[in-house]
UniProtKB/TrEMBL annotation:
Native source organism of the sequence: Streptomyces pactum
Domain of life the protein comes from: Bacteria
Biased composition, class Low complexity, residue ranges: 267-281
Stretch list, region Disordered: 264-285
Gene3D superfamilies: 3.30.450.40, Histidine kinase-like ATPase, C-terminal domain, PAS domain, PPM-type phosphatase domain
Name by which UniProt lists this protein: SpoIIE family protein phosphatase
Amino acid sequence: MITARAAATFDPVGRSVASARTFVRDTLQGWGLGDIVDDAVVLTSELVTNAVVHAGTAAEVSCVRADDGVRVEVADRYPERELPVENAGRNYGSPDREGGRGLLLCAALASRWGVEYSAARKRVWFQLDFPDRPAGTRSAGPALPPEALPVTDARVRVAVVQIDHTAAVSSWNDDARALFGHAPEQVVGKPLTDLAAWPHTPGTGTGIAEALQLSRWEGSYGIRGADGRIIPVYASHLRVRNADGEPSTVCLLVRDHERAVLQSPVRGPAAGDGTGPADRGSPADAFEVFIGSPAPDDLDGLLQRTVERARDMLDGDAAYLLLATDDETELEVRASTGLPSARQRFARVPVEAGSGRYGSARMPAVHEDLTVVPGAVPLLANTGMRSVVTVPLKVEGRLTGSIGVAAEAPGRYTNEEALRLQFAADRIALAVESARLTELERLRRGSLSFLVEASDLLAGTLDRDQTLALMAQMTVPTLATWCAVYTIADPSSDPELSYVLHEDEDRIDGLKALLAKVPPPEPVLAPGARVWSAPAEAANAAALRTTLRSLNLGDSARPSSGPGATLATAAAVGGETVVLPLVARNRAIGMLTLGKPTDEHFRQEILELAEDLSRRAALALDNARLYSERTAISQSLQRSLLPPELPEVPGVEVEVIYRAAGEGNEVGGDFYDVFPIRDGAYGFAIGDVCGTGPEAAAVTGLARHALRLLAREGFGGPAVLERLNAAILDEGARSRFLTLLYGELWPQPDGSARLKVVCAGHPLPLRLRPDGRVEPAAEPQPLLGVMDDLELYEESVTLDPGDVLLCVTDGVTERREGSRMLGDDGLADVLTTCTGLTAGAVAARVLRAVERFAAAPPSDDMAILAMRVPEPRTAPDQPPARN
């Protein structure tokens, strides 16, 4: 009877073979059929290769679980291509021929197999029966003496955590609480990724989210405890489905050093086959250690599984694996077990570690006692390891890495163990190199995307503070745990700490205080990252002082806060710290500082990516500086073109609203001015220079200053404008025509105000009567900057109490929404609603009406000048005066 079924279709491309293998492996592992996984994967690989490579069609792979075994079917869409099989004679051809080898494997490994043809497809199937085994027994290991058993704590705790289909924690048992310190109500409903610390470079390897999607998974990661520490765990995940069909994942977690409780046993020689301790070191056994390693595209999992099985194969206490850099001069630690891997990850050691026979990683080496040759294996310094065997990983004669297995006892390893380890290393080297190249390509693509996004973000702002914040936010936590940016204002000034960021926001203040006490790094122009040890030294010194002070105070007198924060800061910056120069236009403008937690190291690819980012960030920061300087200069010059504060005109309310078009502009082509001419007389002007921007603002400055100077020299309105017209024409090609309303105002003793105005091509001033009537207060005359000879005249106007004089530029009257325009009539209609309002309220109501007339922001400069003669106030005990 069929109890489970899974199917998938794979495209006719070469990589589909590996995808089919992964599909079958994950399916059978998810069904708990690890005993037959390897045979099923081998047969599937051959049959899918026949379909997608030889037949050239898509392959349909089905896994069917029954009571007695598993049937795997591989179908292609090329029935015309018959298999090289002669059923009658059971002749499958020679093992050396190109075709038919998969059928030989089916005959050798499968319990039953067959071929089925139809009009549209050909299906090859095989069945693997379940092995006979006692009920309840899956695998068994030899009896071991007590000293050979794995070491655990007095009580082994197994945390059982269930994750729902949204990747959130749905169940948290008592052992999980005891191991990690979190109560169930603190974690249930939160994503597991909030607690998991995955040792994983962005863009490469399998993350915890991906691992939760697999049907079965085993491996190591960290869980952040309630005290903030990372607790290494070994996990076994099993994906299940409830009665409603919703998937979830059951996670069993133990401390990493207790992994033997959960780790699946490695398949070894069958009992009773004659292999004893003397035969355990055969090359075949060494090869068997690496069977079932993770898929090569998961480099981190492959390397970690490799070192664990290398350690188990030689019965060692620790093992490590290093990969060569591109120039093969250094080796980088990529995986380890039994060593402080969190502290050693991505550390580098030279290929030529020293002189003598075992100084090079290019040849197998055996050290019977490291105390005799100190420094021979720098990675094992101060770890307690005494004997070690190392072998190279080589592909086509080129050094690609090194594997080492170490023991705490001296004299544990001989050349025989070196040969066994070398045989295994030769079998895994190609897979490691292939996975490394895949990871490198993935990282390069991720780096390119990262730099493109970083460039877009940096180019999107010219604000210095925002640029500094973007620099830090792009590096933390993608490239580093914490970041500090130093800036240099000019070559003669010292570096200044400008921005600090840590992935844990609670540690930013402590980190900033620590860096403030450390002399900044020396600025250099040379490219590349350089190690800066001062922060780690200062942090460790502060932590030591805090610890000694606490010990001297005693537990009862120990302060509740302070020492913990200091120790946390020391742990946060106690790792490797590098400084990258920020150089723009051949000048050092600052430094980008990146740091790791205690004893962690940067990998070379991350440093190269950070160097590329620093170059882009330096240019963006310098552009922001230049923009800020030019903006400050521009704003200072623009403010000089604006009049100072409006003077107090006795008996007259004066209000001005000014809006310049264009981002960053304070002055445009429109201008205004109100100024005292002599005792009792005041001048006012509002004008509009053709165009907007700096060119128009230059004529604005000429006009405003010329008006003041000429008016104070005693010239009347027409003479003032005629001389200003001549000055504009003298500018030649830089001249621009100008519309201008100029007037002089004299407050009168009776409460009125007398005005003389000249309107040279400008929108006419409007007079608002207390009864709501609106009328022009002047006649139009020729504009300035066009003709040499102008004949202008001034008109007299008297503003009675309650009258308002409104003067605007054409940015108000020419406000448009599609084909509609506000116009003079629309402005007059707005003004009729302003009776009884103060001058400030009139100007504000006109501005609101202009803004609401159209949805788009104004595209022209606007100036609004309102003057009002207030009505006399009536005493409370007197009746209002009659007109």
